[in-house]
Structure formats: C-alpha cells, structure tokens
Amino acid sequence: MAVTINTLREYKQKGEAFSALTSYDATFAQVVSEAGVDVILIGDSLGMVLQGHDSTLPVTMDQMIYHVSSVAKGNRGSLIMADMPFMTYGTTEAALENAAELMRAGAHMVKLEGTDWMTDTISALSERGVPVCAHLGLTPQFVNKFGGYKVQGRDEHAAEMMIEHACELEAAGADVLLLECVPAPLAARITQAVKAPVIGIGAGADTDGQVLVVHDMLGITTGRKPRFVKDFLADTGSVQQAVEAYVKAVRDRSFPAEEHTFKA
Ligand code: KIV
Ligand code: NA
C-alpha cells in the first residue's frame, strides 16, 4: 500500500521510526522504494551532489521538475517529497505557483526551509491541498546568513526559538517537520512538542524518522564526511542491500548511534 501522510502519522502514534532517503532519478527511486523506504526526497542537495555547486542556491524550478518527474516514474509506493528551491517561495503567490508545478510533476508534498515568516505561505499551501514539510535548524539555503554549515540551536535562546517556530509552523498547517543538524536533546523536545511527524538528519535518534542523502549512505561522499553520515554499503554487498540495511537500522533505532549525533 502506498505511503501517505496518514502512514507517517500512524508511525508517530505507534512510536515506530520511519526512513527517508533522497533520490534524483528513476532507478534510485525504484531501488529505494522497493527496499521499503517510506519517503523519497528530491532534495535541492542535487545542486551539490549532481551538479557540483558548493551550495544549493543555484538549483532552478525546471531542474527540480525534471528530477521529480524522473523519480515519480521509478517510485513504487513511497511518499514523494520535493524541495522548493531557493527563493521560489519568497512570496505566497510564488509558492503557490511553484508548488503546483512540483505537484503536477509527481510530488505528494513540498519542503520549505525557514521559520515563522513562512506561516502564511504554509497555510495557503495547506488550505489549497499541498502538504508541506517545514525544514528547520541547519537550512542550507541560509548558508550565507549562517556564515557556513553549522549546527543550529546550540544555546538555550536559539533552542527555545526553534521549539516556538516548530509549534507555529505546525499550527499554520505543516504536516511534517524536518530538523537538520541540531543537538539531539533539542530534536527530542521538538518531536515531543508537535503532533506532526518529525524527520531528522544529524538530529539524533529520537526524531520520528530519519533521512540521509543517498550518495552519503552509499559511501560516495566527496569531500569531508559529515558526522551524521554512515556508509551502509561498506558492510553489505550491493546498493539494494545497503538501502535495506539502512531501513532496518532506522526501524530498530540502531542508526543514528552516538557517534552520528550532536549532543549539544
Ligand atoms: O536537499 C536535501 O537533500 C535535504 C536533506 C538533506 C534533508 O534537504
Ligand atoms: Na534540501
């Protein structure tokens, strides 16, 4: 049976961890989906992973549409989440138009990076039938404001703000939250504070779900390997088995381990 937002809500209610991975093409989408990954993310990380840029900012709507439609063809029942690229949701009007294009290409949900400024836009999308994932913490589209890729929410004020923003975004209509590179105790507090399923990357083992960039979990990271990445291909014989091992490790919460986690 196909995964829907209801499936993710049921996982949260039952306390069962669910998995997500990026895919950018039909072949990976099929492998990932058939291995039992619940959510496929067409991340704007493709700007770095596929295109070789040093940030996600250059990714365009046309490129996202191309990759979403490829993934949709390979998908075998996972929920397809598509990133809205940098500045394509700067106004609510732009967000509605651009989200519609991603949905027409085959997405079931769109993901936006930001904080409380997104509430009106998220309400507008939600009211018109577009499920939204709100991405908080290390939001890579803000790299130039952050001055680098840094763990977020480390001091108590920043942590309180992130909890507040998570609650506001949920109240505005966000169906899923995603936390990137935040201390595990903060991610646990946010996961408890909201009813919406929370997906983490570099956010510890207590979020409702986990996500990784598929290249990273296959050990083909170029450059410095982030702390939260684990190579699942190293101990398995094939891409298929590596993805299955990831699904299992997320489900039994053996991934992420302490070594993949930011404590504070
Ligand atoms: O673009 C992406 O792949 C992402 C994940 C890392 C969460 O946003
Ligand atoms: Na992204």
From TrEMBL:
Pathway: Cofactor biosynthesis; (R)-pantothenate biosynthesis; (R)-pantoate from 3-methyl-2-oxobutanoate: step 1/2. GO terms for molecular function: 3-methyl-2-oxobutanoate hydroxymethyltransferase activity; magnesium ion binding; methyltransferase activity. One of its GO terms (cellular component) is cytoplasm. PANTHER family: 3-METHYL-2-OXOBUTANOATE HYDROXYMETHYLTRANSFERASE. Belongs to the PanB family. Its cofactor is Mg(2+). Mg(2+) binds at D44, D83, E113. The active site is at E180. GO terms for biological process: methylation; pantothenate biosynthetic process. Its EC number is 2.1.2.11. 3-methyl-2-oxobutanoate binds at D44, S45, D83, K111. Catalyzes the reversible reaction in which hydroxymethyl group from 5,10-methylenetetrahydrofolate is transferred onto alpha-ketoisovalerate to form ketopantoate. This is 3-methyl-2-oxobutanoate hydroxymethyltransferase. SUPFAM superfamilies: Phosphoenolpyruvate/pyruvate domain. It holds the Pfam family Pantoate_transf. The keyword Calcium does not apply. Binds 1 Mg(2+) ion per subunit. Homodecamer; pentamer of dimers. It is an enzyme of class 2 (transferase). It comes from the Bacteria. Keywords: Cytoplasm, Magnesium, Metal-binding, Methyltransferase, Pantothenate biosynthesis, Transferase. The gene is panB. It is found in: Cytoplasm. The keyword Zinc-finger does not apply.
